[in-house]
Amino acid sequence: MKSPKVLIFLALVLPALAFSADPAPKVDPKRIINESNGFLKEREPEMTAEEYALYEKVATMLSSQPEFALKLLEAMINDKEPPSPAFEFILGNAYYAAGQTERAEASYQRAVKRYPSFLRGWSNLGVLYYTSDKFAQAIPCFSTAVTLGDRDPATFGLLAYCLERQGNIVPAEMAYMQALAGEPANPNWMEGLLRIYIQGKQYGRAESLVKNLIKERPKETRYWLTYANVLLEGNRKLEAIAVLEAAVGTGVAGPDELNLLADLYAEQRLVPEAVAIYQKVLGASPAMGEQKLIHFAEVLTAGGQFAQAQEVLGSMKSELTPAGRIRYLQAGADLLVAKKQWREARQELEELLKLVPLNGRALLGLGLTYAGEDDLPHATLAFEAACQIPESAYRADLELANIELKNRHYEKSIAYLEAALKIEKTDAVQNYLTRIKTLVAKTSD
Fold first, then answer.
1. Under 8 Å between Cβ of 274 and 258
2. pLDDT band at 366 (very low <50, low <70, confident <90, very high)
3. What's the CA gap between 384 and 390, in Å, rounded?
4. What's the rounded Cα separation, in Å, for the pair 201 and 195?
5. How much helix, strand and coil, in percent to the nearest 5, is found in the chain?
6. What is the pTM (predicted TM-score) of this model?
7. Cβ within 8 Å of residue 411, ≥6 positions away
8. Disulfide check for 367: which of 5, 84, 126, 383 has CB 3.0–4.6 Å away?
9. What does the longest C-alpha to C-alpha distance in the chain come to?
């Protein structure tokens, strides 16, 4: 039996390294079953003379005319004497070829029940269960075939996958190794073993495997991403960057690889490099690219790197998605507020509020621009509007408390702080409230 062509999809979740439920390796069950139509002398049951005579006539029809072959085989069955296990096996093959899997299963089961050492009967029954996603039922079939002497790498590989799907990781690892012993360069069994190593956090072994996979199939994008994530699990960020740069250089990097590389550049504060890669992401996936670029600008603003933040925002195309446009205006306004360019920030925020009038973050920003110019009445109006929106109410209450404290309206300041504490209790705000109450008490005395 030749090894089936299989394909196991490696799915990684970033930044944590994990796998989704993998689809079963693809096999060609009809080929496997058709190739089993010959018999192994002295190791499998024999047909009666009449059965063999009919078998010789229909053997060539099983793959080309399964329905016609099936009719001839069924005509041989009578109620007086059951067919031999060998004939049941061929009948099961014919049923399978004709798409009658339930009858095929019943025939294979009768064959192995009457002849328990029927190696290929167990193997074909395992293939039938496997292709029906009945992995738990396939395991004993493949295991029995192996016990009886089946050393085909495909049998070990499919057994390994079934064991893996059932959570039997240790025997699955051993079975994958047996499959690889027979086919050392088979990427399907290497991927299965790779999943197990990653699940078990055996990143050294995983690295060796994924490097071999890249060597065997350098155009498979997912292998490069897997390699980078394995390195990241060991906090080897610069090496991960080098791997992803190689993927970009060879032209195999997709959006996920570009996205991860840009994130790593951004983390290292390599602004020009990050912007260049984010622009590639923007071209392939506009929504993702613009969100990433804007987030990068926000991070730079928060870190006080205003010139770099402006560079990032300035690199963005004018054709933004509606959601991107809103976030772009907000990021620009935040940068201007951080730079204390109050008038320019207010213009950005007013444009933003035309698009989303109930944007709490924008209302907070607007209040900060007025407060920055010491225009407390207008700042109060903006913060009071922000108080009506749940996601901005906490911060707005604190800002209003500060304004009332400046105006020496202590009771109002206390009321706003208590309102903030009802939303979120923090020691800092509680201590602030206590100090103001103490101040009020001393003033009263």
1. no
2. very high
3. 12
4. 10
5. 75, 0, 25
6. 0.66
7. 440
8. 383
9. 118
